[in-house]
Every structure is written in structure tokens, then in C-alpha cells.
Amino acid sequence: MTERFLLHQPCDEQWWPIARQLGLRLQRARIAKGLSQEALAHAAGISTYTYQKFEKGESRPGTPMNPRLRIVIALATVLDIQVEELVGGMSE
């Protein structure tokens, strides 16, 4: 018999602090690199609006962000930092 393993999906209330922390890390890294939100978003292949929402920690009003891995990697690459600098040490 095959066991099923379900990933724990935190509720939005639990996810907000993580999303906000990622947004703050993105903002700090962007400022340190001397990039505008528009320049970073364009270089990473996402819209400025989407990136602005990421810095706020949300994807849609009232919904914490949960960006795809490829977007996190693209942002880290443009910022010339390791992905771990954006997401390391976070937990629910």
C-alpha cells in the first residue's frame, strides 16, 4: 500500500509574515544594488506591478505572495545574490 504524503499548506495568516519578510529582503537588496522597481522587474521578466506587489508581500489584495521558484531565481540573479539570501532562515 502506498502512503500519501501531503504537504502542509499554511493558512494565509501564517504565511503573511514570511511573505512580508521576503518582500522586505527584495526591497533591501534592490536598493543596495541601486535599481528601481521598474528596472529590476524588467530585467527579471516580470511586470513592474507584479514586482511592486512582491515588495509589499502580496500577490492580490488580501493574499500573501507565493512566487514561483523561477521568479525567485530570476530576481536573485538580477540582484546578484544567492537565492538563500532571499528565502533562507524563513519558516512558518
TrEMBL record:
Instruction: Look up the domain of life of the source.
Output: Bacteria
Q: Name one GO molecular function term.
A: DNA binding
User: Where is each HTH cro/C1-type domain found?
Assistant: 26-86
Q: What is the name of this protein?
A: Helix-turn-helix transcriptional regulator
